[in-house]
Design goal:
439 residues, alpha+beta, eight-stranded antiparallel β-sheet, elongated
């Protein structure tokens, strides 16, 4: 490394690294803890909701139309069917999903039907395109927003915005710092804590940065910046149009209605839609058939996000069931594929159990690194420290300019990072000003 890094730059990086860890550390720790809980739940959820998900009945499955009607009868026709997820294999149940105005965004009232006996095996709220069940939904919202709604999402955005910065800064400090010359067991306690903090962070650093970047795609402020960039560069994920290309559509009984109850008149087509989707190449057992709204097409989508990924989507004519539009994963651009894979790996579903184990270990690593950082700070207190402002002033003019431009650019791209950085600097400038006044 250059003398600039090992000299005047290193104290500045150390101080910046300390500030980030001190103020953002709790948010990063909580995000890692809640992420760990989420990652560990699929098997637990499969056990808790075993009755709803599984059935011991054997024999020929009834039609999808019959299964949907059984779910409607169970709810006494009080809600409208919005989609059906047929049983993925023998011994699994079919999910009949209902639009419920009492539920939140992306939530569905879902009735679990035995495909053979038409017995209702469960009734609960499912969430998102993954169709996660109540336990994971709660943990997902805990990880995303601490169950505090949209404002709570800024906590996770703060953690994601700073995690990659603190990791890269830590890697630079580790690479330019003094090398270990003795066995860990022979180190003094102070050096051992520093070694554990640094080694854990560097070992898991690549995955930490990956989690930070993919987490930002779901964020509030930075997420909108990322979406705008993707749109400008034409990196958006392809989707299908549900327009009927001007053709007239009519319900089976020719009811001239405009509300969602019109969907109910098309339940009889479910099995034909399934057959048409299979004929069009939709071969994943994980299919969602979404009933058409008035004047719109059927939407059939695969939702298998494991490897190899199967997330093709079709739009089928409401009357003829011909393919009007399609978005096949194989035709996605590289960036769209990487985003899909990145999000699924972040959630621990891309490679199944190995993916879960890796994400769990990294979450533990983040928690250990953060905890040891606080222990190191606590054991050193109240050692005097030079304000970050003073260290920045000591840098060469070009370095000061680059840091300022970089901070402004990052603050614009990642607004939560920018606002919190202003808070850090405000506190630090106060300390620096006070140090100039006191003789």
């Amino acid at each position: 490394m250059s003398s600039n890094i090992t000299g005047g730059m290193r104290p500045f990086l150390l101080r910046l690294h300390f500030y980030i860890g001190l103020f953002v550390g709790p948010f990063i720790f909580v995000a890692a803890l809640t992420g760990l809980l989420y990652i560990l739940t699929p098997q637990l959820e499969n056990s808790i909701y075993a009755r709803a998900l599984h059935t011991d009945s054997s024999g020929t499955a009834r039609s999808l139309a019959d299964q949907a009607q059984a779910a409607r009868a169970y709810l006494k026709n009080t809600l409208n069917v919005s989609a059906v997820r047929p049983a993925t294999e023998t011994g699994r149940t079919t999910r009949v999903m209902f639009s419920d105005p009492a539920l939140g965004l992306s939530e569905n009232r879902t009735v679990f039907i035995d495909p053979v006996t038409l017995e209702v095996r469960g009734d609960m709220t499912t969430y998102g395109t993954s169709g996660i069940l109540p336990l994971r939904t709660t943990l997902d919202q805990l990880h995303r927003s601490l169950l505090l709604g949209d404002w709570g999402r800024y906590y996770s955005e703060l953690a994601a915005s700073w995690l990659w910065v603190v990791v890269l800064g830590g890697v630079v400090l580790w690479a330019t710092g003094p090398k270990r010359r003795r066995a860990v067991r022979d180190m003094p306690a102070v050096q051992r804590r520093r070694w554990i903090h640094a080694t854990t962070g560097v070992t898991a650093g690549v995955v930490m940065v990956f989690l930070s970047v993919t987490g930002l795609t779901w964020s509030q402020a930075a997420g909108s910046r990322i979406d705008a960039l993707r749109g400008a560069l034409d990196w958006n994920t392809p989707s299908v149009s549900l327009e009927q290309n001007g053709s007239a559509t009519h319900a089976h009984h020719h009811h001239n209605v405009t509300d969602l109850s019109a969907r109910e008149n098309r339940l009889w087509q479910l099995d034909a839609v399934m057959t048409a989707a299979r004929a069009a190449g939709m071969d994943s057992p994980m299919l969602e058939i979404r009933l058409p709204k008035p004047e719109k097409a059927w939407r059939v989508a695969e939702y298998d996000r494991s490897w190899p990924t199967q997330v093709d989507t079709l739009a089928l004519s409401a009357d003829t069931l011909e393919v009007l539009d399609r978005a096949d994963f194989a035709s996605f651009g590289l960036v769209a594929k990487l985003i899909r894979w990145g999000i699924d790996a972040h959630m621990g579903v891309l490679f199944g159990l190995p993916n879960q184990i890796l994400m769990a270990l990294v979450a533990l690593g983040v928690m250990v690194t953060t905890a040891y950082g606080y222990v190191m700070w606590w054991m050193r207190r109240p050692a005097p420290t030079t304000p970050l402002t003073a260290l920045w002033i000591r840098l060469p003019p070009l370095s000061r300019l680059l840091w300022a431009v970089g901070a402004i650019g990052l603050g614009w791209a990642l607004p939560t990072l920018g606002i919190s950085l202003l808070a850090f600097l405000f506190i630090d400038v106060l300390r620096w000003t006070r140090a100039q006044i006191i003789p």
